[in-house]
Amino acid sequence: MASHSVNPPEDSAAAEAAPNTVPPRRGSLSFRSRAERSSSETLSVEIMERSRSRPMASYASKRSDSDKLGSQREIDDDEARFVYINDPERSNLAARLPNNAIKTTKYTILTFLPRNLFEQFHRVAYIYFLILAGLNQVPQLGVFSPAASILPLAFVLGVTAVKDGYEDWRRSRSDRNENNRVALVLVPGDREFRPTPWKYVRVGEVIKVAADESIPCDMVLLATSDPAGVAYVQTINLDGESNLKTRYAKQEMQSTAPEALSGLIRCEKPNRNIYGFLASVNVDFPTGTAATKPVSLGQSNIILRGCELKNTSWVVGVAVYTGQDTKVMLNSSGAPSKRSRLESQMNREVILLAATLFALCSIVAILAGVWLVDHRHELDTLPYYRKQDLSEPQVGKYNYYGIGAETVFAFLMSVILFQVMIPIALYISMELVRLGQAFFMIQDKNMFDEATKTRFQCRALNINEDLGQIKYVFSDKTGTLTENKMEFRCASVRGVDYSHGEEESLFSSVSSGETRKPKTSVKIDPELMDAIKGGQGIEKANLARDFFLALATCNTVVPILVETPDPSVKLIDYQGESPDEQALVYAAAAYGFMLVERTSGHIVVDVLGERQRFNVLGLHEFDSDRKRMSVVIGFPDKTIKLFVKGADNSMFGVIRKNIDLDIIRETETNLHAYSSMGLRTLVIGMREFSIDVFEEWHSAYEKASQSLIGRAKLLRAVAANVERDLNILGASGIEDKLQQGVPEAIESLRQAGIKVWVLTGDKQETAISIGFSCKLLTREMTQIVINSNSKEACRKSLQDAASTARRLKAAPDSESTFSGTGSMQTPLALIIDGTSLVHILDTELEDELFEVATVCDVVLCCRVAPMQKAGIVTLIKNRTDDMTLAIGDGANDVSMIQMADVGIGISGQEGRQAVMASDFAMGQFRFLVPLLLVHGHWNYQRMAYMIMYNFYRNSVFVFLLFCVLYSVIYTALPTIIVGVLDKDVSRKTLLKYPKLYRAGQNNERYNLKLFVLTMMDSLWQSLTVFYIPYLAYRRSTIDGPSLGDLLILAVVLVVNIHLAMDVFQWNWITHASLWGCIVATIICVIIIDCIWMFPGYWAIFHIMGTRLFWACLFGILVASMVPRFTTKALTEYLMPSDVQLARELEKSEETNLSNSSEIPLSTFSQL
Amino acid sequence: MQNANGSTAGSSSASGEASAPLRNSKRPKYSRFTQQELPACKPILTPRWVISVFTLIGIIFVPIGLAALAASNKVVEIVYRYDDDCVPPNMVNMKVAYIQNDTIDKTCTKTLKVPKHMSQPIYVYYQLDNFYQNHRRYVKSRNDAQLRKASEANETSGCDPERTANGAPIVPCGLIAWSLFNDTYSFAIRNRNLTVNKKDISWKSDRDHKFGKDVYPRNFQNSTLRGGAKLNLTKPLSEQEDLIVWMRTAALPTFRKLYGRIEQDLVINDAITVQLQNNYNTYSFSGKKTLVLSTSSWIGGKNDFLGIAYLTVGGLCFFLAVAFTIVYLVKPRKLGDPSYLSWNRNPAGH
Questions:
Q1: Neighbour-count burial of A1027, counting CB atoms closer than 10 A to its CB (0-12 exposed, 13-18 middle, 19+ buried)
Q2: ipTM for the assembly
Q3: Is there a smaller number of Cβ atoms within 10 Å at the N or the C end of chain A?
Q4: Whether B142 contacts chain A with CB within 8 A
Q5: How many CB pairs (< 8 A) connect A and B?
């Protein structure tokens, strides 16, 4: 301990100085803006290990699941944090621990300006604009007015700064709200709990949390209102899952009053791992006999900040991690700010253009220098230069600083003149275009979710066009592909299939004038109902009753009463870690076996209208080895039965085979039918205990549960010993309801060349069955399963997988994996689980995984942790240039959503975390199809064209200026309009041919080749614009302003006709903006020429009166467009792109349509 | 595929109808604009279009080109470069000294032959070469306010380095006015003077609005360094047409400026005697001075370029029309044939 007591114990100062461990977060609304909500404010933690891994009635310490993930090791003193229960002073003595205040803001008032500007100037172009603005301040260059030259940049910077500042202010406001929430903290001296703001909570303090309150920090449970030490927490604000998770207080601490408790917890240093918690506790008993034996604490003994306490009237815990140290804050990885692919590609072109600009300016400067040197003796008197200034008696120099300086000035001045080469207006136009595109995406009625009344949301405005270039879609399963609603569909009782749910269940439990109904009703099969009621013989009725009793009892579901408007009616909401179990319990309730009450010792079930109390004598939890769970139930009539339910392959091994062979065979047939329908199946068995068997089991069970070492293993052995010779009761089929249109959407995406990867926290079997039901997996696919427990095993299975893949893939070309249908190869599916990923991610095995995964057509990752989801996205992002998209609904998807190039949140569900972190939010998975295939395609196409066109147009101006120095009229409007409105192919066609999406994936519309071609075209066009008038007016009386007018009109016409040639669809807005722009330019020129102050007074009228002018203008237009038109016509005809062909198809279909609609009309008229 | 999408769309709209009575304020309002379904024309470059566009351009351009060439050929031009000729043989090596020496008589006489019949009006131009009237220092060096209003005579901003002389403002100030061209020409045929009409050689708009009727030259060409012509101090600027013409600065370094008009026909082989005053100093920057007598046509002066350009473009378009016809015949492709789609052409995706 001595080694730790270095720092002074001034905890508040220490807290202030606590390092801000939260990296800067992305600009858009963060998860913190939910200050209004009463719920906690924390980010994604999914408590992965859900479902049957924990028993209802666990009594004392259990190894946490993190053990499995390999974190079981002794904590060294150096790596440990020492928390003295109920002694915050001593806990904070050793190290500077932060207090519980959180800070998610990026800036302070002082750092705002420098830091924000620093971030903004990451855009290469802004630096360029800054240099230019600086140049404009040099008076000798005074090309434009200095103030005006700063304005555009200042405007762009200012708007962004205000936006960032506002968001940061909102964050700080919600931080403040969060920090000032009140928790009950035990004051050590007073022995009573006092309300304290969250921000003052310190490590070591004991906190009491009441039901439905949020947990203020990560704390180890000391005691709960339940005598067994059980507490339920809801993580709905973390991961959007509404079911409860169970946590336990250690019996060793539960038994002592929290006020009197003291002890030392040794735990890990704060880390991001939310599945693991490694600690041990030495409890000092008040009697003075210090407990010497440390008790280990695990994942199930800690409740994390951000959870909410449910169904437990209070818990008391000791704070172990506070503020920025909480797992939730450590996991709130700030999203890297996203920049669209096109924009980063644009940086390349910006640099290229800057080089061209530099070259042009150098040429200008060198020529200027040469000329000055040539004429150095004449400069004094040269009529058009004359550096001598004779105004004053002393001969001065007129704006002349020597040949060297003049050359430099010439260079800088040409930089200023040619600055439009990289147009700041492009950046403004891009923002405007994105705004327009966002508007159309939001307005699209095909992306409006009728069920939840949510429309599409654009949360990030700067990556619209990335939607057109996606190659990988990483999808969450629960809540994204599926509705997270399990539905009981089929039952097979004694080999008879009952799967015709038709009738509404009428059962409700009435006691003391209060009616209780299950919250969700399940359709029941009348035949089965009849069987239960005894209509098909008493034996059958008993079996059916046992079947449903098993469903109602063999689980860990907790019934919670929900008030309804009618005070005499209450709804029973079944809460549990496994949605399957919930579905089974709801089904049992519908058939008249309603679970009404559950405590750790007994269960109350309303059996066909009559309440019965069953004793729970023992519960064998689910584990992945046995793949089943069981309960020992003491019936009111003193019989004792063991109910078992589990996966079919594990159950058939323990079922008594010597009798009921027919039933077993029938059940197997039914099971096969269910699973081929995509249902999740469970087999239910029963064993009646004789007194002897019960006694034997009971003593073994008691012994095992009280042992301190290897308890789980012993309990497993007890369970395995007793779960045998079962009578088969039946089987159930549960549907994990897919969201609407998911299989079709996946098929469309696959056609579009997008790889869909499903990353789920579910079990492997579940993941595979969902894979089949959403058509991700097909029967003809070869599945490669990687399911290993060690690094070496992973390496080996990866190598095997790679060789299998090589063998099966005739063509090693990775392109071929996109081809999908029609290829001769066997499609491959890779299924990998989270445990394997632990050993693979962040090691050298990543490369091998990447190779295998990219060869496979489908990748399914099951039991993955949130950070692993992000890790998989990174795996692809780091190794390819392909664009990735992540879609999910829960907080466990946040890291993945932030990591991917495009993150999409499913809105409309309870949890808002995913939406808050996302770039786009929508109601349904299937909206991905219109979003990517239609809007993504259009956005990409439009933006790519607009950028290219802007570069083109400005270089035309510059190349022209290079020849003749004159001002520039801006023609931004038509580009913006085209950038917002034009569409190459209609929605219908895009959806009909999903493969058209590949245009974006292959960068067809914006690449270096296209850029170079465009630049060459612009060079040719500017040459014609300059040289045709130059040669035509050589040796004529043409004056400068007149020629300038001609050039301006010519260049505006040329760039707009160029645009007109590329417009795909002409609607009235396009017409208006394009022709309007030309007319506006002419009007502008006329107005300027009507002002006598300018040298060009009346020039336009003079020159328009000459035929030569019109001949020049017309000649320029045609000559400049001929190469482009020719190339366009040739490529469209000889090498048509898919998009081009689709346009032709569309057109011919339309003409056919209009023809066919005309024919009947004409025949009609003839009649 | 189509069925799948159809069903998706269908079901969504069905559910929409079902929940229609519910509040749906958030639901986007349908309009053809917001759904991006405005009626639009979708032009496609069909072979017929391409060929007819090229043919049409050819049909328009070739005749215009021919007409322009013909017009240019009909223009008769007498071009006489005199800057070298008019330097006395003894001073050929010291041209600058010659031109700067005010004591030498700069009169220079030359006889020009009329090559073809020239019908009136015959325009008299002077042409300067290598004179950058479009230089940024030069173009800026003027003050339009001063030229227009007598009251603003003191307004000389922007006129550097020719703002003031001997402490007083110059009217008209600036380099442009200062460097006013001052060679003069007079013509005679068979010893009879040809009158050169110097009226209305400038733009009417300039005379009426840019140069004031009550603005008189003041303190002009009084500094030690003399640039060019002096102005008649008794005439308002609006009547000093040579100045007005000069002040409309040329766009290109080789330019002509109108000197006057001869309003009578000149007959072939007539000998015109030109008497010029060779005053203007272009020798210091080796600029050329040329006297031009020219008729005009609808296309302007004598310049074959535009005609040739039109003929070239027109011819090229005809050629392209033929070339495209051949391409379309040799490699016929039905427009909108799905079998050309890349995934149909090559099922393996290569």
A1: middle
A2: 0.88
A3: C
A4: yes
A5: 309
